[in-house]
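Encode chain A's predicted structure.
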Amino acid sequence: MTAQAIAETVFDILYLGFALFSGLTMAAKGRSPMVRRAGWMAALLGAGDSFHLVPRSYALWANGLEANAAALGFGKFVTSITMTVFYLILYYIWRDRYQIRGRRGLTGTMWLLSALRIALCLLPQNQWMSYRPPLLPGILRNIPFAIMGILVIVMFAREAKEHGDPVFRFMPLAVGLSFGFYLPVVLFSGIAPVVGVLMIPKTLAYVWIVRMCWQLYRQPNGRPATI
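Encoded structure for chain A:
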């Protein structure tokens, strides 16, 4: 038993419990399609991350991370797919929230980036089951993911400001922080494992995103007053 195992396990239980509880609650009881969609997005976040966090907690309590490389790698693979879908759903929440019509080119771009990201994740060159997978595939598969994040940041920043949206006004910051903490882990965790600690504030950024969606659930109609 180590302090790291105790701390990470407690943190993971609280995080996964929050994401799954709030997500399933919104999905089941949401008063609008947008809120229910936000619920499924949050539930997907919790379910996807559990594939990585549960084996990680087990490894910390048992025989170590390297001995459980295959389970951890598979969990990272699943999380990579579910996080891609997470941002695609967030795009549709943006459309619902601000009543966006048309923009087929933007929708097509988001779907194309999602498909490209998932296709890159499926390549055997990723070597997901290895304890130290190669860096280049990690960089390549995160390029379309980062572009998706930039688009989401710009879209929410523009519309939230225009509508004076009190719920999603900090969504661009939360998404930006999630990528800001995540990308250094992709680039440097192989040579400096301590960088992996950035996954904690990255996770807290996702908690913030879900918390904003929970505010939608608490609103009568789930829309800004200016729309």
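The chain is about 75% helix and 0% strand.
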